[in-house]
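We close this part of the discussion by returning to an individual protein. The amino acid sequence and the backbone structure tokens for this protein are reproduced below:
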Amino acid sequence: MGARCNPGMRAGHAVGFVCFAALLLAGATNEGTAGEKLRGNNFYANCRFSHTGNDDPIVYPGEPGRSHHHTFFGNTSTDAYSTPASLRRARTTCKPRADRGAYWVPTLYQDGREVRPSKGQFYYNLRSYTDMHPFPAGLKMVAGDQHADQPQPARVTYWACGGGAGVRVKKSSSVPETCPVVRRSFKVLAKPCPTCPVERRTYPARIQTYVELHVDFPDCWDGQRLDSADHQSHMAYSRDYVCPRSHPVKVPLIRALIRYPITDGRNVELASGGQLTGHADFVNAWDQRVFAKLVDDCFHMRPCNDPRRKG
């Protein structure tokens, strides 16, 4: 059984969600209750680069210029004074437009020059044995450690080379020195005549890969706080998609993929220091009605790319 979500996306739709195939397991794992099945889908928001600045409305609210330099995606108004209410009134670079959330990462530099991202994509992974809840309105999250001096767990953040056709190579805690050109072959159906056998032709392709930063946000909420003193303890990571008792509310796991138009990591560092301090921030300013319905539809394998949906 597969997801009924429409994998297509027509240009111009107010809601440009893409749902991937559902992941359904035939039986329960050791992490799930007997008889339960892991289920769920994915959708993503494409959020172009918006702006940069030394602001951080989560860690240093109301204190402009105090933070290290950040690169912002999505909401075009994000600054030190941003609140969930102000973000919901502003514009966004995201598709869908219903996502007015604020996303940001430390700015990347190469040889002392800012490297502006060519792509910001935020995958919403919905996986659970039981149920799935949308983020509450105004939830704030920080993923990763801006003070790290050792490699962080790969389940939180890593560097890789990435390109078209789903190519991912050199997963590492440090920026790869060089991102290779990957050789791939694609089988394409040639135009057959009605009575002729189908002819298959193989076309070689050379795909240039580029440096990418990956950050995964925690997917379990304590059910009470929208933020915490350290901006992390109100959230937790699941283990095989099962939440700890301290954080029992299963929410989507955001996987941030930031692609930079460079093919090597020589003389590259983050504004937060070195290459090991990868982290990302998020403030939920979605249209909450649209977001809640999207999460419910996708998780329960109902169409979640409905062209009639407004957002």
About this structure: The longest helix spans residues 288-299. DSSP finds two helices and 20 strands in the chain. Residues 142 and 281 are 5 Å apart (CA to CA). Helices lie at 84-88, 288-299.
